[in-house]
Amino acid sequence: MSLLVLQDVGKEFGAIRALSHVNLTIKPGEVVGLMGDNGAGKSTLVKIIAGNFPPSHGKVLFEDQEVHFTRPVDARSVGIEVVYQDLALADNLTAAANVFLGRELRRRVGPFSFLDHATMNHRTAALFRELKSETRPDDVVRAMSGGQRQAVAIARTRLAKAKLILMDEPTAAISVRQVAEVLDLIRRLKDAGIAVILISHRMPDVFSVCERVVVMRRGTKVADKPIDQSSPEEVTALITGAKEAA
Hints:
GO molecular function: ATP binding; ATP hydrolysis activity
Number of helices: 8
Keywords: ATP-binding, Nucleotide-binding, Sugar transport, Transport
CATH architecture: 3-Layer(aba) Sandwich
CATH topology: Rossmann fold
Oligomer: single chain
Strand order of the largest sheet: 6-9-10-3-11-12
Pfam families: ABC_tran
Radius of gyration: 19 Å
Distance between the termini: 25 Å
Organism: Microvirga lotononidis
Helix content: 25-40%
Strand content: 25-35%
Structural class: alpha/beta
Order of helices and strands: EEEHEEHEHEEHHEHEHEEH
CATH class: Alpha Beta
Protein name: ABC-type sugar transport system, ATPase component
CATH superfamily: P-loop containing nucleotide triphosphate hydrolases
């Protein structure tokens, strides 16, 4: 069974064609790299999958059912989560508070209701153990490394029981050691049966963790092939237009 299928998807903004006839299939637990230069159509494609706006034409199927997303909450309701480059974390809060932000657990004592910090911390610690992250529930985000911040953002998607996670440049502007941490987190998601679309400009990252690479240029998909049948040199040629398609 396929998890996500795009059939002949296109998007126009007035007279501007951002996407043209894109077909894409993502299987459960598959890690796919999405590459292309700025303006290639990657962001538009991701925003259609994430429910930011509907396609102008074509179909989107999730778990073999046609879906019509008009808001991100529609995509989240079926199990699609996005980890954006800025991570959208609250720096002044703890890891646990960020993981449960907007989904806080409460307990009642008589007529009063209190935040259930103990249960939220316990559940967050379990999520970090699953991800094999050394991040702790009571760590404050402001003091975290880039790799730890990614762990918090990914733990939040795990809490939401995501089936597909779109990761937008997760290794941009972090150290080599932190890059290794993030790539390990992606491997943990794959091991848990969660599909990942990795949007990245970093060729080593894509060739390290992805099974397939999809290349976009000028709103068109110009390649979709197994990593072991391609090379960084070929992908670079496809991105720049030195090679038309693969």
